[in-house]
Amino acid sequence: MQKPVPLLDLKAQFDGLREPVYEAIREVVESQGFVLGPRVEAFEADVAAYTGAKHAIGCASGSDALILALAALEIGEGDQVLTSPFSFFASASCAYRVGARPIFADIDAETFNLDPESVEQAITDRTKALMPVHLFGQCAEMESIGALAESKGLPVVEDAAQALGARYETDGGLRMAGAIGGIGCYSFFPSKNLGGFGDGGMVVTSDDALAERLRILRVHGGRQMYHHPFVGWNSRLDALQAVVLQIKLKHLDAWSEGRAKNAARYDRWFEETGLPTEGKIKLPVRMPRARHIFNQYTLRVEQRDALREHLAGRGIGQSVYYPVPLHLQECFAELGYREGDFPRAEQACKEVISLPVYPELGEEQQRVVVDALVDFYR
């Protein structure tokens, strides 16, 4: 009987890290220093060096990273944050959490990232920040978005939750996702390319004043205990998460290369089947200036829901990111959007499916996945 092929196999990743991770956790437990402190500072310094940002500020989750970034920019009541309707919920809900409202622009049909022309048309006099999402591990078109933001005097908050390690070519060379605009946000949820043993997040910036405000906001808005110039949050990165992530960070580029190799192999094998030529599936598109790290390998397919059932019946992991666009979520009904407002995002929600692409995935497992799609469409 065919062995199952999981969408993600974190146990396979952990097998190669068991001893150093256990030792690092033991040291934290022995120290009894669990919240912020020198171990978190050491990890923050490593992330800053890795991304090229001047400052890295750890927090409790990727969602909190977005909220803290907007709060540090003093975005609030009556303001708008422009982002993608084809993303995880936090890309929009973060605006609500600071008293603002999200507004949306349509995506590029090829990359799934924000379409700069649609962004320009959606900006209003209440728009106070642009929040491009580097979806599935590929940077949005940051040159165009950055130029637009500069012309409008707007800050850019990069939602790089899925893209730590992705790079984008600019006139100044390769830049790291999250460190291209003024402020960038990462998630360390376990399924991310750099995932912890629970929740965790990080904000990076090269702006000294923003960094100082972020550090204050993550600890109830106080520079020192019991003194609060701002109303902040309790959003601190745990030392246990920091030491695990610090160990994993050393392997991140190698893991990203493994994902890219698996993605290239899928591309080659799917092309050999003829399914893309027949229009049954559409392979991921890579921007020439972007280094894609494939947090997800996402296809557009015909008969998506029937294909999901077929794959599940064969024990093959898959998922849909995302089945409902954000502008049509029930909780955002007050924003006044309707079906048809962002047709490219809405169409993507009906067609996308993500397949296993984690770096430990073997060629034999990939062949099982490809053969299953061929059997379905033939």
Structure notes:
The chain is globular. The chain is 40% helix and 14% strand. It has 2 domains: 10-249, Aspartate Aminotransferase, domain 2; 252-377, Aspartate Aminotransferase, domain 1. With 378 residues, it is of the alpha/beta class. A 4-stranded mixed beta sheet has the order 1-9-8-5. Strands 3-2-4 form a 3-stranded parallel beta sheet, covered by helices on one side. The mean pLDDT is 96. It has 14 helices and 13 strands. Helix 4 (62-72) crosses helix 8 and helix 10 (252-273) packs parallel to helix 14.
CATH superfamily of the largest domain: Type I PLP-dependent aspartate aminotransferase-like (Major domain)
Largest sheet: 4 strands, mixed
* Total helical segments: 14
Question: Whole-number average pLDDT?
Answer: 96
Sheet/helix structural class = alpha/beta
How many β-strand stretches?
13
Main β-sheet, spatial strand arrangement: 1-9-8-5
What is the CA–CA distance across the termini?
22 Å
Strand content: 5-15%
Overall 3D form: globular
Percent of residues in helical segments? 40-55%
Stretches with pLDDT under 50, minimum 5 residues? none
The CATH topology of the largest domain: Aspartate Aminotransferase, domain 2
Order of helices and strands: HHHEHEHEHEHEEEEEHHHHEEEHHEH
Q: Assign the CATH class of the largest domain.
A: Alpha Beta
The CATH architecture of the largest domain can be named as 3-Layer(aba) Sandwich
Count of the domains: 2
